[in-house]
């Protein structure tokens, strides 16, 4: 069932309180398409593992709440910042040791992400992530009825909160039931009531939060070491991306000088948090940048060579080989497909 009202909140021609269940089932062939589908939050996707990307996102829109279920067959790095007033509750469907949510590595449970939180997620290929976007004030007000102290703790939080595994079983069951209803026949006009679904899901979310072992804050003292290396990895990525957007291809010396760390420390940070050495990560960033530009050609996209050299590639043979290895497609095919779409 395709939803024709694709933006959250009131829009021209869209009923902000739909009388039918609004759903979307989206298929992606590129990481940038997954980012564009989540227009409620500024988010960047980067493909890290080699191979053709096949992804899917199921979306169910409810009043002041949206449920997402996303899966990809390639490893992706996702980063962004939640907008004011919006929070999320999320989990990885099957816990994975290589999955990372900010400074939490391999944690199998529910995460509460407060408004304006800067996130950085590493999702291994073949894994699925489910989350709900919720109005934070409404969630906190409702939670105060059940647990005032817990509601105040989450309201004050500025960092990611790990709610543990106990919260996951209840939340996973409820959110997947809503997603299943969105895909079932008969949930369009005259089908499932969105207000009733929202009320039921909100209750299950609140009960899942109160069933937690007590939130573990991302700012907890025992996470100091992880937090430090995560922030270093984030600063390194931001420096690399800033340089690339200014037409500069930084080297290892530039990166170490900017972060004021040794090469050995830098290599450890990247292997721990990005799953690859700094040079390989930089090359994948540049290849992702080329692909994003080829998929959305503008006046400056005159040829593959023009785009590739703009991203610092000088040897076209090596560039084309690396591009095919990462995306399983020739760069010329990407550009032709975009121009004829």
From TrEMBL:
Query: Is DNA damage there in the keyword field?
Result: no
- The answer, when asked if Transcription is one of the entry's keywords, is yes
- Keywords associated with the record: DNA-binding, Transcription, Transcription regulation
Q: Which residues form the HTH araC/xylS-type domain?
A: 234-337
Question: InterPro entries from the xrefs?
Answer: AraC_XylS_family_regulators, HTH_AraC
Entry-linked Pfam families: HTH_18
Q: Which domain of life is it from?
A: Bacteria
Q: Which PROSITE patterns match?
A: HTH_ARAC_FAMILY_2 (PS01124)
Descriptive protein name:
Transcriptional regulator EutR
Where does this protein come from, organism-wise? Thiorhodovibrio winogradskyi
